[in-house]
Amino acid sequence: MYMIQFGAQSGSTQADKTIGSYHILLNKIFYQKQGESDYFKTLLFLSIVFRVSGKHQDFESEGAESLQKSASRNVYTIDFTIPQERWQNKTDVELRSYIAEGVRSCFDLLKQKAIELGEVIDEDKLERDFEYGMKQFMTLSLPELKGR
Fold first, then answer.
1. 18 HSE (CA, 13 A, CB side)
2. d(CA 70, CA 114)
3. Per the confidence metrics, is the pTM higher than 0.85?
4. Residue 121: pLDDT band with limits 50, 70, 90
5. What percent helix, strand, coil does the chain show, rounded to 5?
6. pLDDT value of residue 36
7. What integer pLDDT is reported at residue 148 of this predicted model?
8. CA-to-CA distance for 15 and 3, rounded, in angstroms?
9. DSSP calls for 40-100
C-alpha cells in the first residue's frame, strides 16, 4: 500500500520511545513504496505527522490540525497532535485505540480534501484498503526500536 506516509516530531526522548513503534508500524502498513498510486491521480500520497508533546516541547493542542499542501511535493499533509497525558503511563491497548482514533480523523479530513480536488481514483478501494490497514494496526505486533 502506498497511501499514507507517517512522520513524527517528539517533545522528548520518552515521547519518541513511547510513540515510535506505532509510527513505524503504521508506515510498514500504509507506506510500502510502489510505482504509481492505486489511489490518486496526481497526488503522490497523503501524510500524517504526529506532534507528540513531552517535557521539552508542548504542542499545546490535541487532534487533527493544519491540513495543507506540501510546499515541495504533490502531497497533502495534516498534523495529529498528541498531548503528554494521552501517551504517558498508557497501556498498549489504550495507546493503539487512541492513535487509531486520531489516524481515522486525520484520514477522513485528508480523504475529503482529495475528493474535493478530484484526485481519488476509486473511493471504495481507498476506504476498503484503509480499513484493512487499520485492522492490521490493531492486531500486528509492534516492531522493536533499536537504539532508542
1. 27
2. 14
3. yes
4. very high
5. 45, 25, 35
6. 62
7. 45
8. 25
9. BSS--EEEEEEEE--SS------EEEEEEE-SSSSEEEEEEEE-HHHHTT--HHHHHHHHH
